[in-house]
Write a structure and sequence with these properties.
Helix content is 0%, strand content 37%. By secondary structure, the protein is an all-beta fold. The protein has one domain. The structure holds zinc ion (ZN). Residues 22, 24-25, 27, 43, 49, 51 line the site of zinc ion. Zinc ion binds at residues 22, 24-25, 27, 43, 49, 51.
Length: 51
């Protein structure tokens, strides 16, 4: 996803950001910031939601 919530504010993924949650399900998400893909957030666990 493009945005995750940090302190209830939609935030774009950037390296080093922590404590972000999915706006859809409230699960913890981590920033994926490789060089091949655009920066995005992904759920820490496998489960996906319908955001
Ligand atoms: Zn979610």
């Amino acid at each position: 996803m493009r945005f995750a919530l940090i302190n209830d504010k939609p935030t774009e993924a950037m390296p080093g950001l922590v404590d972000a949650v999915c706006p859809g399900c409230g699960a913890s998400v981590i920033a994926k910031c490789g060089t091949q893909k655009i920066h995005h957030w992904a759920h820490k666990n496998i489960r996906m939601c319908d955001s």
